[in-house]
From TrEMBL:
This is Geranylgeranylglyceryl phosphate synthase. It comes from Aciduliprofundum boonei (strain DSM 19572 / T469). The keyword Electron transport does not apply. It catalyses: sn-glycerol 1-phosphate + (2E,6E,10E)-geranylgeranyl diphosphate = sn-3-O-(geranylgeranyl)glycerol 1-phosphate + diphosphate. Keywords: Cytoplasm, Lipid biosynthesis, Lipid metabolism, Magnesium, Metal-binding, Phospholipid biosynthesis, Phospholipid metabolism, Transferase. Its EC number is 2.5.1.41. InterPro entries: GGGP/HepGP_synthase_sf (IPR038597), GGGP_HepGP_synthase (IPR008205), GGGP_synth (IPR010946), IGPS_HisA/HisF (IPR050064).
Amino acid sequence: MKVMDYIINEIRARKMHMTLIDPAKQSPEEAAKMAKEAYEAGTGAIMIGGSTDLSREKVDETVLKIKEAVPIPIILFPSGAHVISKYADAIYFMSLLNSNSPEYLIRQQMMGAPIIKKLGIEPISMGYIIIEPGMTVGKVGKAELIRRDKPEMAAAYALAAQYFGMQLVYLEAGSGAPEPVPPKMVKVVKDWIDIPLIVGGGIRKAEDARNIVKAGADIIVTGTLVEEVEDIKAAVSEIVKAIKV
Ligand SMILES: CC(C)=CCC/C(C)=C/CC/C(C)=C/CC/C(C)=C/COP(=O)(O)OP(=O)(O)O
Ligand SMILES: O=P(O)(O)OC[C@@H](O)CO
Ligand SMILES: [Mg+2]
């Protein structure tokens, strides 16, 4: 089954949680252990990516180890065409819609497209929109950050993504953001679009996760959480339970 079909089936039944693992931050073995605990806690897919400091070799090794450890899809969340691993099940074929640089709007995608075709990875097109504070990825991606009090601006970008025929929209506050995307903004965006909505960045508390899915997010992503907590299974379980609304 295609990964996108799996995602659509999942979100038809329930809200979904995905775990982001940055291969730069630990060994492939440790990454696999983290993925396994998150899977056992109910995460629905593993996303692989980091905004800086990544090599294809490290991504390959990490994907391979995670693949041995969990049966759920492994989806690349690429910072550029240089990290495309042939071992992944799918790749978010994303454009950073509010970037000021053609590099992240279309150039990395132009360089990545032939690689993806050759390797036979499933591309899942996604409009990626970065909201304040944006953190590292906001800077690296040269994003003109969406103000937290301008939900209509985020919604307009999201609708543009839908009209481009993109399959998903991702609202990103930035990895490790002190506050996640405001639920009010999630609601306005969801009201404007018909395609599935992913929200990530700064989600640590079960309550925040619940408020974001209640506002209309179909999928929530946590990354930093699994890097920081001692008991990954307990922490992810709490989030997964909280989004059963
Ligand atoms: C589709 C292809 C081939 C490329 C897309 C290239 C684009 C648009 C990239 C967007 C900008 C960018 C640098 C995205 C990185 C996404 C990402 C993995 C962010 C967060 O990762 P973390 O590792 O948690 O970030 P930190 O390193 O900041 O913690
Ligand atoms: O690391 P956190 O803050 O959970 O963010 C996850 C993801 O949205 C980053 O791209
Ligand atoms: Mg991070």
